[in-house]
Structures are given as C-alpha cells and as structure tokens.
Amino acid sequence: METYATVKGQVVIPAVLRRKYGIKAGTKLAITDNGEAIILKPVNEASLKRLQGVLKGKGVLKAIMEERRRDAERE
Predict the structure, then answer these.
(1) Residue 28 located in a structural domain
(2) For a 10 Å CB count at each end of the chain, is N or C smaller?
(3) Quick one: which of 30, 37, 29, 33 has its CA closest to 70?
(4) Is 28 helix (H, G, I), strand (E, B) or coil?
(5) β-pairing, 38-43 with 28-33?
(6) CA-CA distance, 11 to 1, in Å (whole number)?
(7) Start-to-end C-alpha separation, the chain
(8) For the chain, how many structural domains are there in total?
(9) pLDDT at res. 72
(10) Contact 19/3 with Cβ under 8 angstroms?
(11) Which string of b and e fits 33-45 if b means at least 16 CB within 10 Å?
C-alpha cells in the first residue's frame, strides 16, 4: 500500500487499515521514530487492553521518564 503526504504533512490511512485497527475520526495515534521508519499506533481501548499488565512491576514511571528524556534530546 502507498499513500502521499500533503503540503501540510497529512497522510491518508487506507480504509482497510483504519477498519482493521479501529481508527475513527478523533482516534489518537502514537507516533514513533525508530531511526529507520515512522510507526503509527492507534491509542484506543483495544490497544490499551493489549498493553494491560505488560509493564507491571517493571518501573513504568522510570521507563516513561526515560522515553521523555530521549524525545527531548531528539528535538
């Protein structure tokens, strides 16, 4: 699948993928740059349920603060 970016940097997510991942108008998307690709992940009830318990006991606050520090360094 391919799409194009507009002058404003907007892209259209194909309908088949919007349906598959439950992306609707107003759905928040988490954007990650892994150095080789841009990754879009929907932040909706289904995605949050999949993450439930994943970070339990792993220093979630420290992980979040470290991620924020890395983001600030990239900017």
Answers:
(1) yes
(2) C
(3) 33
(4) strand
(5) antiparallel
(6) 13
(7) 30
(8) 1
(9) 80
(10) no
(11) eeeeeeeeebeee
Structural tokens at position 58: 């792993």
Q: Which residue range forms the structural domain that includes residue 39?
A: 15-74
Taking the C-alpha atoms of residue 70 and residue 72, their distance in angstroms, rounded to an integer, is 5
The answer to the question of residue 48 being in a domain is yes
What's at 53, amino acid-wise? G
Q: How many residues does the chain have?
A: 75
Specify if 35 maps to a domain: yes
24-68 pLDDT, tens digit per residue, is: 898 888 888 989 999 998 886 666 666 666 666 667 667 777 888
> 32 in helix, strand or coil?
strand
